[in-house]
Specification:
- This protein is α+β, with helices and mostly antiparallel strands.
- The protein is 45% helix and 26% strand.
- Strands 5-2-3-6-7 form a 5-stranded mixed β-sheet, with helices on both faces. A two-stranded antiparallel ribbon has the order 1-4.
- β2 and β3 form a beta hairpin.
- It is elongated.
């Protein structure tokens, strides 16, 4: 199915949802909402149509220097798969090169690939870590994700100050606690 057809089908569903909620999708102010919402949702879930490993592999270079590479505070926006409400935050990625390094923007793009799907934070963190680890020669990868979830803030328990942190690591980060400590120290030292 073509992109325009998919968006039109999604818009029909939004029209039905608006009706089921008790409003008139044809009234002024709402008449274009189903199509706008469909386009927004299609854009926000573009990760289903992208390949994070291919993104990383498109910019691998010979290793040139650091003991550890860290890309800090990559912002992301995603949708909780349980309530289809937004969650958002920042991801920081560290890796120990082993003959290769990756173009830094590709790590941010890989985060977007997984964030732009219906998701849970724990899986998002693991998928980013696993993809970096398997797409780039390295001695270890570490990923930390800090996020706020609207499913916690605007429904259910309604805890406004809550946030969630998740971490995943491989290789030397798994076997050497001092490396994990160095990573976290670098996150707090680098402004």
């Amino acid at each position: 199915m073509e992109e325009e057809q998919i968006i039109a089908e999604i818009a029909k569903h939004y029209e039905s949802i608006i009706s089921l909620l008790g409003d008139n999708p044809g009234r002024p102010g709402l008449e274009k909402t189903p199509m706008r919402a469909a386009k927004a949702l299609y854009y926000a879930t573009q990760g289903y149509r992208q390949d994070a490993a291919a993104t990383i592999k498109s910019a691998i270079f010979d290793y040139a220097g650091s003991r550890m590479v860290i890309v800090k505070d990559i912002e992301f926006y995603s949708f909780c798969e349980h309530h289809i409400l937004p969650f958002f935050g920042k991801v920081s990625i560290g890796y120990i090169p082993d003959g290769e390094m990756v173009g830094l923007s590709k790590l941010a793009r890989a985060v977007n690939v997984y964030a732009r799907r219906l998701q849970v934070q724990e899986r998002l963190t693991a998928e980013i870590c696993d993809t970096v680890a398997s797409s780039l020669k390295n001695k270890g990868v570490i990923v930390v994700c800090n996020a706020q979830h609207l499913c916690m803030k605007m429904r259910g328990v309604e805890k406004q100050e809550s946030s969630t942190s998740s971490i995943e690591y491989t290789g030397e980060f798994a076997s050497n606690p001092a490396l994990r400590e160095e990573f976290f120290r670098m996150l707090s030292d680098v402004k």
